[in-house]
Structures are given as C-alpha cells and as structure tokens.
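Dear Dr. L.,

I hope this message finds you well. Following up on our conversation about the binding site, I have prepared a predicted three-dimensional model of the protein together with zinc ion. For your records, I am including the exact sequence and ligand specification that went into the calculation, followed by the structure tokens. Please feel free to forward this to your student if that is useful.
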Amino acid sequence: MSCTFDLKHYRELLESAGGYTWATFDREPRAGDLFLRHDVDLSLDAALVMARLENELGARATYFLMTESRFYNLGSYDGRDAIAELRELGHAVGLHAVYPNAQLDARFDPVIAWHNPDPEYMSAPIDGAVNVMSPPWFTPGHYRSDSNQHWREGCPHDELAKGSFAWLQLLVHPEIWVYEGTTMRETMERMLEAKRNELVEALIDDRIDMT
Ligand SMILES: [Zn+2]
Ligand SMILES: [Zn+2]
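The resulting structure of the complex is given below.
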C-alpha cells in the first residue's frame, strides 16, 4: 500500500479505521473513538467530494468551514448548498475561525477549530464552544495531521488497522487528497485549474458574455 495523498489511499485509510467508532465533538473522547476532522481552508468542492466518499463508506466527520475565507464564500448559493449537502450526508459542521472571531451562528454546531493558530491561544477554552485543540479532545499521542502533505508522525493507516490508538483525532485537509499531485505546488495548480473552470461557469451564470 502506498501512502500517497490521493482518493485511492484516502479510501484505504477510512477502510483501515473500520474497528473505530466515528465520533464528533459533542462529547468527550472514549476508548475506540475516531474524531475525523476536516479543516476546509481552500475548497468547498473538495470537501464535498470527500464527504460523499465518507458517506459511501459509512464514515462520519466534522467539517470546519470558514466564514472569512479568501478562497470560498459560505454566504453564496454554492456555500449554502455545500452546508446543506454536508448535513444531508450525516456530517457535523463546525466553524473554522480566524482568531479572535469565534462568532458562531445557526449554521454551525458549537465547535471551533482555529485557522493557523498561534501557540498562545491554540488550546485555550472558548466560551460557548468546544475548542478541538483543547484537552481532552487534543491529547498528545491521540492526534495526527496531514498538513501540507506531510504526516509528522507517519500515515496512520497501519496503526488504525491494528487498533493501536485507544482513540484518535485525525485532521485531514480535503484539498490535498482530492486534487492530486506529487508536490503541494502541483496539487494547488490542479485546484486552481478547477477553480478557474468554476469561475467561468459563475460568469456565464451571471449573464456575462463568454462566447
Ligand atoms: Zn497510509
Ligand atoms: Zn485552516
């Protein structure tokens, strides 16, 4: 099995976790829990592709969406449709917040993941919401992240299959699996091509003459 950042291996990763319980952040961790977390930094389309695959495999995740993204607009038709589809697929939706704005509204469950947090506030409690990077949800030895196509402590598929973690919070960024490339740059170029095509369609929808 090759640990490449693509949907084939993402499927294998989910299948390897079959012995775990899909947990969301509405309660504290228990033995056998897998908190599958997605910080959606760049692309709602990538999030939806991942969400459909998870639903097909019986997996449940929490999608953290931004209200202040430079890359997508949660208030647009596409943004509203994306939230509705994530909910229909059975996933939880939290806020991927830009510090210090922890403004929750009815679109979100009361759970927050800071975007690119500084160590000073990363694990601090948040009034009225779960901070996913605070204990007990964030505990050394119970956390893995795929940031920038790099698993600091290795791809967890093997340990998941063996049940090595008593429980785990697993952070996966959809864009880096859905858009394939051998480097982060290649992956981002793929995403940009897809976004260009999306924007051309949006222009046509906006009655711009693109003939
Ligand atoms: Zn792997
Ligand atoms: Zn982020």
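In brief: The longest strand covers residues 33-39.

With kind regards,
A. P.
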